[in-house]
Amino acid sequence: MENFIFKNETKIIFGKGTENTVGKEILKYGKKVMFHYGGGSIKKSGLYEKIMKSLNESGLTVFELGGVKPNPLLGLVREGIKICRENDIDFILSAGGGSVIDSAKTIAMGVNYEGDIWDFFEGRAKLESAIPTGVILTIPAAGSESSVVTVITNEEGLIKRGFHSSMLLPKFAILNPELTFTLPVFQIACGAADILAHTFERYFTQSKNVDLTDRMCEGLMKSVIFNSKIAINSKDNYDAMAELMWASTIAHNGILGTGRTEDWASHKFGHELSALYGITHGASLAVMFPAWMKYVYKYNIERFAQFAVRVFNIDADFNDKERLALAGIKELENFFKEIGLPTTLKELSVPSDNFELMASKAVVRGTIGNFVKINKEDAVKIFELAK
After folding, report:
1. Residue 4 domain-assigned (yes or no)
2. In 3D, which of 222, 228, 234 has the Cα closest to residue 307?
3. Is residue 173 domain-shared with residue 206, that is, in the same domain?
4. Which of 63, 184, 191, 340 is most buried, taking the most CB atoms under 10 A from its CB?
5. Is 3 within the bounds of a domain?
């Protein structure tokens, strides 16, 4: 196990009706709030009215900014920064999934920064401060509700990049599984893939003697696989959605990566697909992760064999570890297919013409990944495996 520091200050408020407490939570940080959300889903579901009621009853002054799209855009972030500056906003509340939360985090980064917000994503600036944010989660997927990460797409050049800082941790995250009942089945499936991918990025490591976090990862993966099937067939199953919602948070709040080196190459591939083709993040990961696995498994067959045995219950007496490793990857693909996700780029209508371009953008700052260092040539081959 490697040295580590773990600190996560996000207050988790979990359970039925918890969204009604949001006003009181925000009052601890100020009186002026920007309420940030996506399209019309929170208005159709009635969540918007509940939130506004709580904010108004707490005497908060509310400014709104809707319109966040999947794979959130830099243009709307700049608009949010302008609103916050002009109105001396104390706090940003986001209601939605990872895209809305990431947009809110990025706005929070830019309010006190005199330069352009994209400077942070290009490595030209160091974050010194961010105004506080809070979350009402409606989609169990990205885990941004309790993570140090934000990911934004710059429309100019279709560049999707992430930024990490402990200053981005939301002050609180309200998790009511009832708020997920109106989700389309495809979004539930993409969310499951996203949760698993966050776990994979930590699980597939070359770090030694990490049995505790191995088993934490494996337990979470097994739970997500089990409960996502239930949730897809019964969207108002509170217990299954509760498991997925909590798994979303745990998979990305840092605890599963303690004492081990993480990878994150597959997320880079997924980001390029989302930036260029607008593909839902979870769907891109369902395609790219198995392809990455097929390319790198020989660099630690023992770990991939362990994955097959512990997560998919493949018979450990199957002595050929390479065949075990490949069987585990195949079972993962079968699971994605079972819940209605694509497993090839062809299913996403992604042509091979842009493999070189996506590979170049993925490694623009140098090799990616830690399980195996991936260069441009490797990246092209992984896209080829995914087609």
Report:
1. no
2. 222
3. no
4. 191
5. no
